[in-house]
Fold each of these.
Amino acid sequence: MEKPFTLFSALGSGGVPVEAAMTLIGLPYAIVEAPTWEGEAEQAKVAGVNPLKQIPALLTPEGETITESAAILLWLADRHPEARLAPAPDSPLRGQFLRWMVFVPAAIYSLFWVRDDPSRLGGPDPEVQARIKTATAERILDCWGMMERQVSPGRYLLGDELTVLDLYVAVVSRWGPRRVRFYEVAPKMAEVVKRVDADPRLAAFWEKRFPFFDGWERLGQQV
Ligand SMILES: N[C@@H](CCC(=O)N[C@@H](CS)C(=O)NCC(=O)O)C(=O)O
């Protein structure tokens, strides 16, 4: 029996694509549930492993800590080439794979630091906070639209094989401004994320870690 990994994560969070990748690879892992956006008690759970107090953070069986969702996904995919979750380093798809694996956290995911708590940049004024919510939602949609115009998906974003990029986009596109808006600005990528949502290998996993309840595609939608 392989020694388990420990993943600091939370339902519906940026840890979920990491959990999905580990599920597909078949790696044993234990979850420390830490929905950090809920406040200091939850942040305290992860502070010892990630000074930014953010999830995901992965502790490997060897005792190494890896933070940053994209780094964890790339590391897992590269360590497990048999799972075919990334184009090989010499694949012609590798450049675009790395490009979008960095684009998602740099251009989109990073905006959730302020979206989750607009007072971090906007102070206490509710009007300023509302403007930040609207402006960041528009920026996120612009970024998805830009990506949409630059990719030529097959069954998946880079062709006909599912990679960790598909898992990543399937999860991040469910956050505000939510999937209905994503479908409007990214119709080609919409087909891909719906295919990932419906992957039978992940059905039980999604049910447990990011369920598709009635109205999920628009719930909490803001702009
Ligand atoms: N760059 C980090 C961002 C991680 C992140 O923002 N995680 C969120 C949860 S999905 C979090 O922990 N937020 C709490 C905070 O930033 O205070 C990554 O890609 O892993």
Note: Strands lie at 5-9, 29-33, 57-59, 65-67.
Amino acid sequence: MISLQHLHKTFSGASGAVRALDDVSIEVAERQIFGVVGQSGAGKSTLIRTVNLLERPDSGTVAVDGRDLLGLDAQGLRAARHDIGMVFQQFNLLQGRTARGNVELALEIAGVDRVERRRRAGEILDLVGLSSRADSYPAQLSGGQKQRVGIARALASNPKVLLSDEATSALDPETMRSILELIRTIRDELGLTVLLITHEMDVIKRICDSAALLESGRIVEQGRLADVITTPGSRLAADLFPLHDLPPDVSGTVVDITFSGGSADRPVIAQLARTHGFDVSILGAAIETIAGKQAGRTRLEIPGSGTAVDAAIADLRSQDLLVEVIHTPSRAAS
Ligand SMILES: Nc1ncnc2c1ncn2[C@@H]1O[C@H](COP(=O)(O)OP(=O)(O)O)[C@@H](O)[C@H]1O
Ligand SMILES: [Mg+2]
């Protein structure tokens, strides 16, 4: 539904040229929630703004619903933008208009008549759970309610695609969760395709089907979360399972075992101790619901190293578990 290919964008700043996008390609399938995560300055806003051409890339292609946006004239682009709604971190509501007025404005611009505007705004405010606050002004609404207005406004023209630029970053954790749930619900009910950007892994974990990691304008990793968590060496997976750093005095072999789907409830650790006679220590564990499924990562220390440990690791791998060796004792220590 959204296809960005080989995007490049360089800004000339005070201290020289900034390469905001450096050969970025992503594909977002219909009805997917795709998250781009990265630190401040990574190029996330620049990337999402290319999707509706608020930002024009220097080179590359932008296609939404099969339409090549860079090839459209002004009128064609205006029409294409009706299919793309956008929400912002700072809500960007007009203070002098009520919730309903803000939603109606989007329809006014689209040339929808007064009666239909009223009807549509009521319907969409109901969808986002704000019918009772339709006549409130932004200053009378909480952050979460303001973002609900922002989402309603984005949905007013019945878009196929919703873009979210850090929509939950200004909200407290509980409100963040309720807004993310709302985004998922509207995806399900309206069949929307969602591209969101965030600096928070928690957002990715809660609602995304797929994710990409953006660093200094480059995509360093991307994929479906279900695949990412079982990809050896995945940085996204490491961020999804927050485990502490290794203690400095670790003396054995340390492995991270990732459980997903069916392997999540097998007594793997007990079996390792029983079959191989190891006195295994658990250094850390994280259980997460990722893309709607339970998955976990456990960090174990197996004493020593050598063939017995290798055999135990091979045994774990034969059980279809992702096993990553993250520390091997030096010869002197073992
Ligand atoms: N209009 C602009 N002019 C000059 N530099 C810009 C402009 N927009 C963004 N940048 C620079 O491009 C880089 C990426 O910015 P941005 O896409 O906003 O990152 P993010 O959203 O990940 O924080 C940053 O170094 C930023 O300073
Ligand atoms: Mg940004």
Note: The longest helix spans residues 173-190.
Amino acid sequence: MRAFTYSRADTVEDAVRALAGNPDARFVAGGTNLLDLMKADAMRPAHLVDISRLPLDRIEETEDGGLRLGALARNADTAWDERVRSRYPMLSKAILAGASAQLRNMATNGGNLLQRTRCYYFYDSGTPCNKREPGSGCGALTGVNRIHAILGASEHCIAVHPSDLCVALAALEATVRVTGPRGERTIPFAEFHRLPGDTPHIDTTLGADEIVTAIDLPARGFAEHSTYLKVRDRASYAFALVSVAAALEIEGGTIRAARLALGGVAHKPWRDTEAEAMLVGKPAEAASFAAAAQAVLRGAKGHAHNAFKIPLAERAIVRALSEAAGVQTP
Ligand SMILES: Cc1cc2nc3c(=O)[nH]c(=O)nc-3n(C[C@H](O)[C@H](O)[C@H](O)COP(=O)(O)OP(=O)(O)OC[C@H]3O[C@@H](n4cnc5c(N)ncnc54)[C@H](O)[C@@H]3O)c2cc1C
């Protein structure tokens, strides 16, 4: 591990100032991802700004009937919050499907959004990785790529975003609140994470000098008909091979609204609004779910070891939508 300097921010303004003009500085919140990456020499910040004591750990009601999740609220406190559990059960389930109890006690919501890929080549500083070292190549393309992307990848990067929380936030149409030297702004969740293109080292649209302060959930939580399904190699303490956040509004057996987002398949949480639109007006039954699943996977592309994810994702979508609708899984 390389030497670095450390300071602690007492206010959001302090934190933003500490990063301004210092491209080698990074925030540290729970530290559960950043410190691992520093130990692996995959990230090399020269200065850490500790934001863990900023007053951003509350979960509050918003005026429009939604909830504001503080960026520093812990993943565990968010998942077990009674309002989250009753109004956004899909979100609670997604968080509890991730990591371990100890990690969730430490990990923050902001840190979860900004966590980096678990691609083996990103972690291994002895191999090429365009995300870690732009221009060095992609070890995964011709290497071991079982956990990699099947949607939205590029010739420069086939890494996936590892978060569970973010998949549910994509389906819920959350908004990310950020503060920087130019003041506050909000970023719709769909625009927060990026596809790799030819700049895979840039994960998000957050400015290098901005801090995430909160995540706003809209009033609509799909509490009645939603679920989060995570398919992985082990039943716990494993990242998703494929995950699905599925939410429906159903009236008299007909789908009135649908949300569908996938994890483990792309560089960002993969929401498919066209497949959602296909479901509206259809009966809440397996045939409708299967048609939507096929539409989501239409452009999917597998590599040497991960082509199995395409049928796996199709089946996971049908199962998640069936569970959300409360109908028998085929
Ligand atoms: C063994 C293991 C298993 C895991 N399994 C899962 C899993 O199954 N599912 C899952 O979703 N996650 C999983 N995780 C990841 C875990 O959820 C993340 O490590 C955690 O959410 C990161 O939060 P943190 O507060 O510790 O972030 P940190 O490590 O403190 O920070 C992560 C990044 O976010 C930046 N950052 C932090 N807060 C802010 C902010 N407010 N504004 C701007 N930038 C910020 C930091 O600069 C850093 O770059 C696992 C982690 C481990 C170690």
Note: The chain has 14 helices and twelve strands.
Amino acid sequence: MKEERNNIKLPSKFDDFNETRKNGFLKMKELKESGKNVAGIFCTYTPQEVIYAAGLIPVSLCATTEDSIKYAERDLPKNLCPLIKSSYGFAVSDTCPYFYFSDIIIGETTCDGKKKMYELMGDFKDVHVMQLPQNNTDELSFKLWTNEIYKLKRRLEEKFDVEITDEKLWEAIKIGNQERRNLKNFFELGKLNPSPLSGVTMSGTQDAFGFNFDREEKNKSIVEKTKEIYELWEKELKGKKTNRPRILITGCPVGGVREKILTRIEEAGADIVVYENCSGVREKLELIDETIENPIEAIAKKYLNLSCSVMTPNEKRFKDLDTLIDEYQVDAVIEIVLQACHTFAVESTKVKKFVTEKKGKPYMYIESDYSMTDVGQVSTRIEAFLEMI
Ligand code: SF4
Ligand code: SF4
């Protein structure tokens, strides 16, 4: 029989993703009315420090619901990643207030679908696309990416008539690094055993965090929450035993399949304790090196070293998986790949081999999209997998 989660009562001020996203609309409207400019972003590779140093507010654009996909499919092929279709659908139908408020969109040439989608988006919005190299170990790739960051800097300076000084960049880097440390500490609550926090709540909180535009308040709130949850864990859970398997999630971003897959995993009797993907610790594992003399080079180095499957080879992903599986005492790995995401789908063969042969842990691959049509099948597979552990 499956064991219930050892839930603790979460702090009352805990961010609900949908609520924070909605409240964010009003805050954004106020900020726009006060003369602030906004940059819409889609990906973890976007060097947010340059945006902040230009005095703009970066906002992650909506790409997690099925509703907007019907608009996208008028222009885009049906068999495209739902994340790309969802982003484009919101944009082309003008149904995302954050897109509407964005003065510029900053994209990167990550996967094929995304970079071609930006071309279409450029027909009705000001889109700046950064050329992301597909290799992150070569010296020339670093030079190219550094140059792309300079180009972004110049573009923002010209469009918004501002000067992005080294001083402003360093200030943005310091605040950004603090934010990374705080979020990493928050995610590390998942290392506690039994885990104090549902993995669904954990990923929702990370996404909700992006809709709080007051960086000081945001940092303060995440520190408070981490402390409160740790204290509650010490009081209510420390020393208790649980048989619930501890799961690491890897693969594509999972904001759009939270209900369909993540909730089912936890309802079926497991605890998601860590996300290796862009919905979790990936970007927080490495800080921007504050000892490098040139801030643009420091920013370039950090972002180029991200372990997304669009990079080839992508060795860092395996190093991170190795460490995270050990540090979070993971019992099994579930890889979630969005339909038609070729880079993650192909790389999954290596991930499976690494997890099963090198780490000796069970591995499960789920490929899905944002519709609920396969929810029954997904649930059955998850239950069977967890029973096997
Ligand atoms: S998975 Fe890759 S392409 Fe997608 S948001 Fe993350 S870094 Fe960007
Ligand atoms: S999930 Fe895959 S296909 Fe979709 S945007 Fe990210 S890298 Fe591209």
Note: The chain has a mean pLDDT of 94.
